[in-house]
Design goal:
five-stranded antiparallel sheet, 3 domains, alpha+beta, six-stranded mixed sheet, flat
Length: 412
């Protein structure tokens, strides 16, 4: 990703998938502690008799640890499994990894971001009683979203394991498309539409929805004079009664990110957060264009200022080096030892050479900045804006109609 694409993603809250981030599933005793974990922002693992000091002790072997666990739990036939689960909970599961927990019968899934190890939990009081977990081993969680496995049939594959803790990272794409309506994964841009009802979904509606999305992307590419890359688009569907339609833009460009804003506008979606942290975004076609123009211009200006600062700093260092060289040459006519003068002259020449190198690198950076500026989205002319408004009108309206008829959305 380019710096400008990162700026767009941050500005419009488009998640960027971290390839090093793992996803874990932790069971909740058949849903018994689901309410407690989600209400009080943590997860926990049993085996309370096993102290953290035993698991963390690097001076003892795993064989010794398993023997100790067997003594603590004589009725358990697999002490190695207990040790493995605790090692995973404390050392393999990293802060910022994603974690999901299933409710009773896996009717709902809650996905969150894993935090630090904690020792105490203040259980929120409620008029409705719920089971409170008192397990010793605990970690904090920042919950993101709860989802239904019924919307995406592929989620069920990730729920097949009955282990207390399971690494389900190989299904990361499935989880991401259910948690985030749009996100970036490497060089691919993902947008997921969700059909929320059990009503039938006609072939014609399916074709028109896909065609409208493609036309919106093509119109935005034309608006910014960016080559049409619609041949790279692929689609993944899992639409039964309810389901998902996932559009993937491979080797995406800047205009593809902007196109998401037009999709959201058509569907009444959202990308920006207000002062209360709520997401809201609906500024129309011209509003989106004005916003992008502002971001592009700000980005260009920052790059130019950075390049100018580097050049001025290098020129100042060069002047200092030349001044020092003159002083050294002047002193060479005095009674200063020749060895000292020789050293000063050598140092001055070295400083001068470094300054010249910095100036060269700064000018190179300046040239690269100009190249970046020329590769950024260009400010559309009034005629281009008028054409885009006209070209976007039909596919955006069509998309809105199909979405309303079939209860399809793209909102978070």
């Amino acid at each position: 990703m380019t710096d400008f694409q990162m700026l767009l993603a941050n500005e419009f809250h488009i998640p960027i998938k971290d390839e090093n981030q793992k996803i874990w599933m932790l069971r909740t005793e058949s849903g018994k502690f689901y309410r407690d974990f989600t209400t009080n922002n943590y997860v926990a693992l049993g085996w309370d008799k096993v102290p953290f000091s035993l698991i963390a002790n690097k001076d003892t072997t795993n064989i010794f640890k398993k023997e100790q666990i067997q003594l603590l739990y004589p009725d358990e036939s697999k002490p190695g499994l207990i040790l493995s689960q605790l090692n995973t909970f404390y050392f393999k599961m990293k802060s910022e990894d994603l974690i999901l927990i299933p409710s009773r019968s896996s009717e709902r899934l809650f996905i969150g971001k894993l935090g630090d190890i904690i020792t105490n939990v203040e259980h929120e009081e409620s008029d409705e009683e719920y089971a409170k977990c008192e397990y010793l081993h605990k970690r904090s969680v920042e919950w993101i979203k709860d989802i239904s496995p019924n919307v995406d049939v592929y989620l069920n594959k990730a729920l097949r394991s009955h282990q207390a803790i399971t690494d389900v990272s190989k299904y990361s794409g499935v989880f991401y498309r259910n948690v985030f309506p749009y996100y970036i994964d490497g060089v691919s841009l993902h947008i997921t539409f969700k059909k929320q009802t059990d009503s039938s979904y006609s072939v014609l509606d399916s074709i028109n929805l896909q065609s409208s999305v493609v036309k919106i992307f093509q119109s935005v590419s034309a608006l910014y004079n960016v080559p049409d890359n619609s041949e790279t688009y692929i689609i993944k569907t899992a639409v039964g009664s309810q389901g998902i339609i996932e559009f993937i833009v491979q080797n995406f460009n800047d205009s593809n990110i902007v196109a998401i804003l037009f999709l959201l506008t058509a569907l009444g979606g959202s990308v920006s957060k207000d002062s209360d942290g709520k997401i809201s975004f609906s500024i129309g076609v011209t509003g989106i264009i004005d916003k992008i123009n502002s971001l592009v211009n700000d980005y260009k200006n920052r790059k130019m200022i950075d390049a100018e600062i580097k050049i001025k700093e290098a020129e100042a260092r060069k002047i200092d080096a030349e001044t020092e060289k003159i002083r050294s040459e002047t002193k060479s006519n005095s009674n200063i030892a020749k060895a000292t003068v020789k050293t000063k002259l050598a140092d001055a020449e070295k400083t001068k050479a470094e300054a010249v190198k910095i100036i060269s690198e700064s000018k190179k950076a300046d040239a690269e900045t100009e190249q970046i500026k020329s590769s950024l989205l260009q400010t559309p002319t009034a005629q281009q804006v008028q054409n885009a408004t006209s070209n976007l009108s039909v596919p955006m309206n069509t998309l809105q109609q199909i979405a309303n008829q079939n209860n399809i959305n793209i909102s978070a």
